[in-house]
């Protein structure tokens, strides 16, 4: 949804920034001058007792003289409360008493239906909570008490109970005027295929409401009270509100906690999250009944660049960690990393906290290992490498894993770290005893084809990347339309990587702002009308953005094909390698063909690039390495 020109300025003029900030801070009234709109308070972004956080209503900005946080009211909502851009705009509009811009009839119909479903879910939350306090919920209360959950915890996580009755919730809702079809659509009831009467989906279970990032209840999870139940935990089905592979339990509160400096910690289940939060680890989330999905990984990275995966210290937890390696490697890069905190054998977070207190879990989280360590452990633990063939098999497994990493700099660092670990594992005895000689030491790698003209830095690609980022910054409403493609952007520059994270998360960081300033200083970028005069230029900006994404993705595909080709070079090239490099050259040339009929709109020299490719093919790639 696009915002009309001047809408944000109108909101800023209507709502003093102190009203927004005042919800999160306690003003120092002795130092503040309320009449002039000059306010001071302890900073909400870093722990302090003095009032170094300044808010100026006249200018509409805040600034901390301690941690240097700064921005306007929208930036504060995003940083302090972890809201997305449009969510922050909606909060500002509500404060100003201004309606959000009108949506299309189709959008309104979808919104109305979702609103009805959310209302049904809210009714169910209240009913489940009442049932926990009833006589039927006695056994559930006893179980929760034994797990250490007091009344405050039950209220905070809105825990309820579903009695073991076939239609208790269904009758309650229909008696209140909710159509049965809506109850079924919300996932609260199911209809047998044989046409029998509908029945409650959750029966005889402790209930955990699942809320999205905006705080709306979208589904429930239920833990069976019967130890012989077919499923210990049961989640609601996929609905218009709920996609279990795209959501995380406790995501909204965790996002707000991460915005205040807490780590994002991913546990296995509801009770693990509750135990972590009660131990002070408020950035805890959990997948919803399945292994972590790619969409959930991307959701985590929108909140924190390096989530900590905290898995139970049993065989199943270790297997889950090893599976996650294969999913994460093709996505890894700057701003998209993982660390793994493996708990002691046989313990989950709740067990560890009960045994050693909050300090025990914090020590485990602080000792979390990077993904590369877990990859090495997976390929080496319990194995004997007493032959050249076994060592070669290890090398191949590690090389195959590293080759899946899309970012070149990250690949190189992985390769270096794994080479160091391999040297430590296979070092000669005298090296292990501290008598390392020059002859024993690992030799630096012989220069390979990385210097080839085929893979030299391409200034044209850097300009395309800059255009993409500038267009998204100038037209934030376009980010949602290209979100999945923007997530796959792979800047080698750390500042640009931070800017990508900011655009996707609707946040603002110092590194991202600096990168954007550098991009906008480029005259090739600044001269584009869709960037220099963004108001009313969305229609022209979108095709330009899509064109730029098409071209950079084609560049990337060609570059990756070239890298794979170079890796296959062993002496003279074979026919398969000839075909691969030819295809790479063809893809690269196609990437530089204008797709909008308007010429070379990003300033690349296709003739020069073609000549460089031909020189590389005829003079470099086929040269036998010595």
**What overall geometry do the principal axes of the alpha carbons give?**
globular
The total count of helices amounts to 28
Helix- and strand-based class? alpha+beta
| CATH level 3 topology of the largest domain | Dna Topoisomerase Vi A Subunit, Chain: A, domain 2
Helix content: 40-55%
Major sheet strand order: 12-11-13-14-15
Mean pLDDT, all residues: 82
CATH class of the largest domain: Alpha Beta
Which regions are unreliable across 5 or more consecutive residues at pLDDT < 50? 430-457, 594-604, 620-626
What is this structure, in a nutshell?
The chain contains 28 helices and 15 strands. With 626 residues, it is an alpha+beta fold. The protein has 4 domains: 7-96, Alpha-Beta Complex (DNA Primase, Chain A), CATH 3.90.580.10; 109-242, DNA primase DNAg catalytic core, N-terminal domain; 256-436, 3-Layer(aba) Sandwich (Dna Topoisomerase Vi A Subunit, Chain: A, domain 2); 455-620.
Annotate the secondary structure layout.
Blueprint: H1 7-14, H2 17-21, E1 38-41, E2 53-56, E3 61-64, E4 70-71, H3 73-81, H4 85-96, H5 105-132, H6 138-146, H7 151-156, E5 160-162, H8 168-175, H9 180-185, E6 189-190, E7 199-200, E8 205-211, E9 217-224, E10 233-235, H10 251-259, E11 265-266, H11 270-278, E12 284-285, H12 294-303, E13 308-313, H13 315-328, E14 339-345, H14 349-356, H15 358-366, E15 369-370, H16 371-380, H17 388-403, H18 408-426, H19 429-432, H20 459-474, H21 483-487, H22 494-505, H23 510-520, H24 523-526, H25 529-532, H26 538-567, H27 575-591, H28 606-620
Parallel strand pairs: 11-12, 11-13, 13-14
Antiparallel strand pairs: 1-2, 2-3, 3-4, 5-8, 6-7, 8-9, 9-10, 14-15
Helix pairs in contact: 1-4, 3-4, 3-10, 14-15, 16-17, 17-18, 20-22, 20-26, 22-23, 26-27, 27-28
């Amino acid at each position: 949804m696009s915002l009309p020109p001047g809408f944000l300025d109108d909101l800023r003029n209507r709502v003093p920034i102190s009203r927004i900030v005042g919800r999160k801070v306690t003003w120092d009234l002795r130092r503040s001058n309320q009449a002039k709109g000059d306010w001071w308070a302890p900073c909400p972004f870093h722990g302090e007792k003095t009032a170094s956080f300044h808010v100026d209503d006249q200018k509409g900005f805040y600034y901390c003289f301690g941690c240097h946080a700064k921005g306007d009211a929208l930036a504060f909502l995003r940083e302090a409360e972890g809201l997305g851009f449009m969510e922050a705009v909606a909060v500002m509009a509500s404060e100003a008493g201004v309606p959000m811009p009108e949506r299309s009839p189709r959008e309104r119909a979808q919104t109305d239906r979702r609103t009805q479903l959310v209302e049904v879910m809210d009714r169910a939350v209240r009913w489940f909570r009442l049932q926990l306090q009833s006589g039927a919920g006695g056994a559930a209360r006893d179980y929760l008490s034994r797990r250490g959950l007091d009344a405050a915890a039950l209220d905070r996580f809105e825990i309820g109970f579903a009695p073991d009755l076939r239609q208790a919730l269904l009758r309650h809702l229909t008696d209140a005027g909710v159509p049965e079809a809506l109850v079924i659509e919300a996932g609260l009831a199911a209809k047998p295929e044989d046409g029998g009467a509908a029945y409650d989906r959750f029966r005889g279970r402790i209930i955990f409401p699942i809320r999205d990032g905006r705080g709306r209840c979208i589904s429930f999870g239920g833990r069976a009270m019967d130890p012989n139940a077919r499923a210990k935990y049961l989640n609601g089905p996929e609905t218009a509100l709920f996609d279990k592979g795209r959501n995380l339990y406790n995501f909204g509160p965790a996002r707000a906690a991460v915005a205040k400096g807490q780590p994002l910690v991913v546990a296995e289940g509801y009770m693990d999250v509750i135990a972590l939060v009660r131990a002070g680890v408020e950035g805890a989330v959990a997948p919803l009944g399945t292994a972590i999905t790619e969409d959930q990984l991307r959701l985590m990275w929108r909140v924190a660049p390096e989530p900590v995966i905290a898995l139970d210290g049993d065989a199943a937890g270790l297997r889950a960690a090893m599976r996650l390696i294969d999913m994460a490697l093709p996505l890894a890069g700057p701003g998209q990393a993982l660390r793994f905190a493996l708990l002691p054998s046989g313990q989950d977070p709740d067990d560890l906290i009960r045994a050693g207190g909050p300090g025990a879990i914090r020590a485990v989280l602080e000792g979390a290992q990077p993904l590369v360590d877990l990859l090495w452990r997976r390929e080496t633990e319990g194995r004997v490498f007493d032959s050249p063939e076994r060592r070669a098999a290890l090398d191949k497994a590690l090389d195959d894993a590293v080759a899946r990493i899309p970012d070149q700099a990250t690949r190189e660092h992985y390769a270096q770290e794994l080479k160091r670990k391999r040297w430590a594992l296979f070092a000669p005895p005298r090296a292990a005893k501290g008598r390392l000689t020059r002859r024993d030491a690992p030799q630096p790698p012989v220069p390979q084809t990385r210097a080839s003209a085929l893979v030299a830095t391409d200034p044209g690609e850097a300009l395309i990347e800059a255009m993409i980022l500038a267009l998204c910054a100038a037209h934030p409403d376009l980010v949602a339309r290209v979100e999945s493609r923007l997530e796959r952007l792979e800047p080698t520059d750390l500042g640009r990587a931070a800017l990508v994270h900011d655009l996707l998360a609707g946040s603002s960081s110092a590194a991202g702002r600096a990168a954007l300033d550098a991009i906008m200083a480029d005259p090739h970028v600044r001269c584009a009308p869709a960037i220099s005069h963004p108001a009313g230029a969305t229609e022209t900006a979108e095709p330009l953005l899509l064109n730029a994404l098409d071209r950079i993705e084609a560049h990337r595909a060609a570059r990756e094909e070239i890298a794979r080709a170079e890796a296959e070079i062993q002496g003279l090239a074979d026919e398969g390698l000839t075909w691969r490099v030819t295809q790479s050259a063809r893809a690269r040339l196609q990437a530089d063909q204008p797709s909008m009929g308007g010429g070379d709109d990003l300033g690349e020299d296709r003739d020069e690039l073609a000549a460089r490719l031909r020189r590389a093919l005829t003079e470099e790639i086929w040269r036998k390495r010595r």
